[in-house]
Automatic annotation (TrEMBL), chain A:
It holds the Pfam family DUF1264. This is Oil body-associated protein 2C. InterPro entries: OBAP-like. Belongs to the OBAP family. The lineage of its organism: Eukaryota, Viridiplantae, Streptophyta, Embryophyta, Tracheophyta.
Automatic annotation (TrEMBL), chain B:
It comes from Cardamine amara subsp. amara. Residues 1-43 are annotated as: Disordered. Residues 1-13 have a biased composition (Basic and acidic residues). InterPro entries: OBAP-like (IPR010686). Belongs to the OBAP family. This is Oil body-associated protein 1A. It holds the Pfam family DUF1264.
Amino acid sequence: MASSGDEDQVPPGDPVTVSTLVIDAGTKIMQRRLPVKQMNTHVSTFAIYGGDMSRQIETHHYIHRVNDEFLQCAVFASDHSDAPLIGIEYVISDRLYENLPQDEQKLWHSHAYEVKSGSWAYPRLPEVVASPELKNIAKTYGKFWCTWQIDRGDKLPMGAPELMMSPQGVGQGVLRPELVKRRDEKYNISTDELKQRRAEIAEPEWINPMADYWKQHGKCFVLDIVTVEMNRNEKFP
Amino acid sequence: MEKADHLSMKDEPEVQGEPTKTAVHLSTKDRPKVPGEPTKTGTSMVDTAAAAVQSFAPLNQIHQHLCAFHFYAYDMTRQVEAHHFCSHINEDMRQCLIYDGPDPNARLIGLEYMVTEKLFMTLPDDEKKLWHTHEWEVKGGFLFMPGVPEVMQRQDLEKVAKTYGKVFHFWQVELGHELPIGLPNLMMAVTRDGQLYPEMIKETEKQFGISIEKERESRAYMKGPEHGIHPLANGGGKGLKLELREVDIKPVESVPRVFV
């Protein structure tokens, strides 16, 4: 499970029944699930809550490359078959990022440090194979909304989504060593070694200061749920 | 149905969060195209290698494709056809990735959690209002599984009709956004007739070869939540919106750290 080490069942609920298993097996055969089949890369990395940067989690991104400048990722708390789905991250090229309005740019984080420091890893994939892609990712920006805060003990998804930050080499962006160590042991990798091997990956010439907004501005963002008049064309509910 | 009811996304002006007065929804043909260079051979080779050696256990659990409609929790007039790809995390909970279409390059626009009434009842009251009911979505015939015989669908939808769902969308494709900009939006689902755009429904029926009216009759026997629809669910009848607030980050000294 994410980072809490909590052995309690998340979420609560009964085991899947036989009748459900039968239906699920049937629909799995009959339905094509085409978009899901496009996710063909697994990345193990970490993220930090914007609303409270003392909280860091391990994440598992399953990535669908829509094109060379845009990735869409389903983010899970682990790589187990019953892993909670904890959010969605979008990844865009520096070119697309620079075209965004400034207010939008504030919501994105950079990936250069995450790659160079060895946090961003492809379990079971040889580093030499991943290398060309790592060079691309180092220049990208991500926007990650987390919808299930398992690390704080939420048995079910609660509240509003949280905007997540990427690991950085300074201040609140520095990852807890034990969090990294646990990941490394699980996949038999060494983040330190990855860091050394990635030394030759070029730092981006320019990381937009609107990204990782907290670093320059000491501020982060949270979402409030507010009650408003609903614009409607019929009664609700 | 008059074509004039449809908004071509190219002509749709940018709506900056204000409620709209006109119909906003997408037919599949109008969906915005994601900008970006096509995938280069070098990168696609990384993908191929990764797909061969990595494990995808959470994705392998995704067994089901549900199609339904969502509207914004603060603006019913903005409606989206939503393709759910779901896994059972246990008997009482499903989690779904939501795409704007069934095709390989569909946009991943959001996610939904579905829980049984039993789990829903354990939620604090403030949380309950973020969840919507599925009773009329199912019984009304709006929620369906493309490619699955109706008889088999019903075996599962009997269960779905009793559940509650919580949906966030992160990409406002119906506004023509080429990239997922802006804030997340809480979404709701249909609870009575007259809410969804008839022309949008017709198009979906045509595309997937279904009849909502006919299926509705076959589902008449189904029942919603045992204790009835909870009054706090569905926003408690109020509109709900997410707003961004800037907060100070805590100084690093106050962050507890364990150095090994």
